[in-house]
Predict the 3D structure of the following.
Amino acid sequence: MAKKVKSVWVEEYRPKSIREMALPTAKVSGHKVDLAEDLTKFVKNFFKEMKRINAENKIIRVYNRTASEKERKEEVKIAPEKAAVLLEGPPGIGKTSIVFALANDLNMEVIETNASDTRTRDALENKLRETVKSRGIMDFVTQSKEKLILIDEVDGIYGTKDRGAVPTILDLIQSTQFPIIMCSNEYKQNLQPLYNKVRKFEVYPLSDDEVIKIAHNILKKENITNLKRGDLDLIVKKNNGDLRGVINDIQGIAQGSTEVDNKDLIFSLHRDTTEEIFALIRDLFQNVSTLREARDLTDKSDVDYNFLYKWVNENLISFIKINKEIANAYDNLSLADEIFGRIRRNQYWALLPYFYDLFAGGTSLAQSRKTSGFRRVTFPRYVVGGAFSLTNAERSLIDKINKTYEISQIEAIQDFIPFLKILCSTSRRQLKNVSDWLDLDAKEKKILK
């Protein structure tokens, strides 16, 4: 019998220790390595090296206070390969879980940032500068844990000279007081400076048998009996090595109707979920008028909370048109993101209802008057794995922008195109000027109207 499950399995069953994990195969320069052993050695050796360097720099600083400017010595910096490593592999295979499990084993605190969100030099520096360079004042008055810095999705940043974050990461690596583990989903040419400086682990998906074994264990703990081996084989094949996707799917199927054939559910899960989200987004912005109604609406949904957050973020401005209300809605989204960061860092899943209240209720209730009539609901542009869902016209427009300005696809979508839309909305003449400037065709021009 399937039972109603309110918790999020992919988080509930996230391994707390490396020993609990079925570790994926990893290679360095084509040679197979023991990922758990190598990462543990990396962290322990980092602190030994920093102890030596800090002691040497203490002597140098004392000397420099009395030495003439010409005679002053430069302080020693840690070698990049001893300060940071990079885990590269497809999304959903457990890279982030490995980092958190390692931190738990070593009694460390994970400081996490997503490089694709802080994609410019200034943004990344503001996020990490104080973290990597010094210990907080409270570390000296309390027995605080050592820090392990996780920079996720580094393949989502772009290494242009003025705005790129890759040079910033390299600078931070050499000035860090804490070990850094970076994660990326795939090889990117712009990350070559990182590849040249730090050790890169190529991480591979678990075997189908390992994934099925993990799924079996979860189903056993949840007392789920309506999924057979053939169903699991189909789910694993559908997700192509993405363990996170497999866990989300078995939870969705386990919560589904027992009157529907499991194979039909497996094949229709994505379609049905998409249709549900379309309806949910419209109800949230057009029918919800109280926080209780927002809670009831999200409680009834089986859509993954993080995925739903992205849909709300993408479609907010389709329903809210007053600038002050848009600002209030984004403020609530920002607070929701901050709370989710606390949940991830400290495993405080009791805060999850507040996350829902802020990103769902907080955005919906930012409206003073509900919109009526049809409003277009669109897929989130940024999806797992760093890929965007773009039309041919949008891709063509971005290509033409890139011929004039050397900016990333993310910057074009999130910053440049919205600016052009505002500019072109002021007059037809401005639209014509921009169109002539970028040599746009009718479909590309329509995007900016």
Q: What stands out?
A: The first strand starts at residue 26 and ends at 28. DSSP finds 19 helices and seven strands in the chain.
